[in-house]
Amino acid sequence: MEGRYSLIHHVRSLLDDEEGTLYKEAPFRVALCYPSPYHVGMSSLGFQAIYREIHQHPGATAERVFLPDDVEAFKKTRTPLFTWESQASVSSFAMLAFSVAYELELTGLFTMLELAGMPVLAEERREGGHPLVVAGGPLTFSNPDPLEPFVDVLVQGEAEDLIHVLVDAAATMEREALLDHLARIPGFRVPGRGGQRYHVARATDSRLPARTQIITSHTELRSMFLIEPERGCSRGCHYCVMRRTTNGGMRTVPPERVLSLIPAHARRVGLVGAAVTDHPRIVELLRTLVDAGKEVGVSSLRADRLTQELVDQLRRGGATNLTVAADGASQRMRDMVDRKHSEEQIVRAAGFARTAGMKQLKVYNVVGLPFEGDEDIDELIRFTTELSRILPVALGVAPFVAKRNTPLDGAPFAGIKEVENRLERLRKGLRGRAEVRPTSARWAWVEYMLAQCGPEGGLAAMDAWRAGGSFSAWKKAFEARGCEPYLARRVADERRNPVHWPTVPKMAPPATAA
Length: 514
Ligand code: SF4
Prior knowledge:
Blueprint lengths: L1 H15 L11 E7 L3 H4 L3 H12 L3 E7 L4 H6 L18 E5 L6 H10 L6 H4 L6 E5 L16 E3 L6 H11 L2 H9 L4 E2 L34 E4 L2 E2 L12 H4 L3 E2 L2 H6 L7 E4 L10 H10 L3 E4 L9 H9 L4 E5 L5 H6 L6 H14 L3 E8 L6 H15 L4 E7 L16 H15 L4 E4 L2 H12 L2 H12 L4 H10 L5 H11 L18
Parallel strand pairs: 1-2, 1-3, 3-4, 4-5, 7-10, 10-11, 12-13, 13-14, 14-15
Antiparallel strand pairs: 5-6, 8-9
Helix pairs in contact: 11-12, 12-14, 15-16, 16-17, 17-19, 18-19
The protein binds iron/sulfur cluster.
Iron/sulfur cluster (SF4) binds next to loops.
């Protein structure tokens, strides 16, 4: 019992440090679940926005739940998973609504259902009078298929409007009628009953901007008030889920409205969005915030949009390093994926950062794009060396993972060995000149399989989770479930049913360097 008390005590101490927590009694209770720990979930603007939306609904309330930091402590003390606000058992709620950011969070969802005392598979819950299980979040912008075996309903895309539709219906309808009803509404998908696949809903503009409801120091973005001055992106990078075709391009919010929503007590402000520096009045917004004495961070800096003034404002707002994404080892690769910026623009950005007095340039890049070769990696080594003469460079490198709902959908994974070789070439070539921070090729492959597979990929994830979650458990599980990436399935299925699949633009190989 003492162990259980200490778990509750820990949550209460985190609650004491929060500002903006909402408490409300209402007939329809939603457990709003994040399948990663508190310090990650509380940095999710989407999660916070839906929390506020549910509280604004006249007949509903929401309490938050996170993947525990110490799952074993819950198991050892037989403590059922409980909510943050009232520490009530999650299974006593009418609905569990999960926000899933990316593929590997699937196992967090399994653990949370297990700790809540609920079967992981939706078909095993149906007869038991369990709460409705719903999932939405950024993963639904690309491929939510692996979630299908575990949820009753998928909410696809921007959920600020759909959550009201869902709560209205769920509060008044019997389960069977509810599922049939939702399967007919665009944006919802009900496994086994229908709903448009890969439909990304778009929230009405009046619900923007998304913004923090609760500020806490116990998050990745410590005590920062997040707000979204723009949503979406007008560009068309071929690998990106947030490209213009996903949700209709960029929608901006006037700075006056953004400023009016930032509470006076917020000392740190994060401007977040897919393409914040594309906002036509970004410099003015930054300047006003910094002049008001705020620390300011910006989530997405595009090298081709940076000016000395913009970078100076970031420095005045407390930034000590400048982060840009290059997303292509060479110009040939960047051109191929329609990533519209050049070496010159990145070099210029490094110069702005040095002039502003920043200490480091962080550059994000990707390896393993289709048609990439050693010569592209060598160009990245040469170019990063050049940048490091301007400012110390930290190079973040992620293996390329093709996502559904993008023109590069179906592109193969370069191969674990191949990616590791390229990372090794990069590390060797930049030794003593730049810090290389790669992400794991193995886990990128697991992500790729989940990004490209259907519901069977989700079942494989469940098997791997049950088998302990090691890389070899994942590999075995994908094999045992006969998982094949999208392209292989598509080719086989197209032969049988040529009209079934949407047309995906073909990628042309890049021009070879002269
Ligand atoms: S990578 Fe960035 S700039 Fe390109 S489409 Fe995506 S959000 Fe826009």
